[in-house]
Amino acid sequence: MKEIDADRRNLLKGAVATSLASLAGNFSLNSAHAAKADPDLIHRENLKEGSTDWQLTRVMLDSRNGFRSSKIEGYCSKQSVAAGEPIDIMVSTRPAQEFKIEIFRTGYYGGRGARLMTTLGPFEGKPQPVPQPGKKNLHECHWDSAVTLTIPDDWPSGVYLGRLSTLKDKTGHGYWQSYVVFIVKDDRPADILFQCSDNTWQAYNKWPSNYSVYTHPKGNQGPWADVSFDRPYSKYAQIYENPQSLGSGEWLCFEFPFAYWLEKHGYDVTYCSNSDMITPDHGLKCKSFLSVGHDEYWDIRQYESAVKMRDAGVNLLFFSGNSVCWVTPLMNSTDGRPKRIMFRGGPYGGKYKYAEDRERDNGPFPHRGPDEGYLMGSRNVDPVNGGGDWVCELPDHWIFAGTGMKKGDSIPGLIGWEYHGDPPQDIPGLEVVAKGTALQGGVNPQEWTATIYPGPKNNFVFNASTIFWCQDLSSPPGHMLPWSHWSRPHGPDERVQRITHNIIRRAIS
Description:
Organism: Gimesia chilikensis
Helix content: 10-25%
Shape: globular
Pfam family, one: DMFA2_C
Strand order of the largest sheet: 12-10-13-15-25-24-23
InterPro entries: DMFA2_C (IPR046540), TAT_signal (IPR006311)
Protein name: N,N-dimethylformamidase beta subunit-like C-terminal domain-containing protein
């Protein structure tokens, strides 16, 4: 077995010199082409008029319990793309019929949630083939491109949805829709680098029928299945029904409320894919890094990037749950394009008991990652899922300033459906700011912990310990509240909003 297990002292102390040397090299290499800071960019963008019609209105799944909509579906050739670069959009319609593509940037936009950037088409649609299962059940599409879109220079970083719409059905009056999703990235210095959790979106994607990293005949927790980004995102397949998000991965479900809230308040934010974090280059230009929602699957290079960023003074903010759980090697597509195939390579956790148990029960795995607790401040635990209230433990801590919370006060339903716990006891200065008990399936208790610890450069690492954090920040158009394990968050809560303001303002000051 290939073991990649960082020494604790390395993570907490010794990596600083190496990181600084690396930093110096990066800055000297990039100084000639350095992107300019523009802290007012997001504020200016959100002054533009939003769209009143960007959501999916008419969606037809192939069957009552189906995951795909073969009426119209598509995918993009890249997870992320920079201004001036091309991206291909592949679309299939069944039967053959005309369609159009409307490209929206998601954001605040006065509460409307998205802005129409351009309309493409009409195009002559055609049925495109469902690939036969390849090695390790890989489903990799090789569809013809409907259009190559070169990203205009004035399109700011963000998460973009392409709404695919047939122009008519056989009645002559109806139409069918789904999304494609891609991230526009940049390399500008910013206060906040928002990492989308798209590796996890793809890990759970069951397109075309029941093919994800969880659905291999050998078992649902082993390294047996490969999955490709070269296929549509099917209907969200986990804890609740949301066919109106078809094709958008988990963006509208578990991350968009955070981005909507950030942009509403004019924060200087830029966006990236998991795959963009295999180097720390952009993160080292930013003051803080956000992991949001369900951020389970990380390439080991992402982990190494986060360590370098922390040790160089970047604030790491894990507003997420079940994060950094599985080592997820990103591999080339069969035609050689980078970072288009992934699989569950093995657990993070080093010698921690949960990692050892996963190896025993589901291995052998080709990889083992370091103990994520020494990065995040709290770990993945078993059971890792359930529901509960987020309970204040240290009311005098600065993160609670202005909330009025007292020890034992709780925010209902905010813990779920997965979380972190059992923080390492030897991280200098680590504090447990909130803790409590979640119930798996409504009956099995598990302890969770939200933590904060100081970094080496007057920075800090915060871990909210829940996938559901963003649910209590905002409720934008196109979003719906989840529920799981007989528990649910309640939606926007002034205390969660204030805690988040406190943390982010400290991180970017």
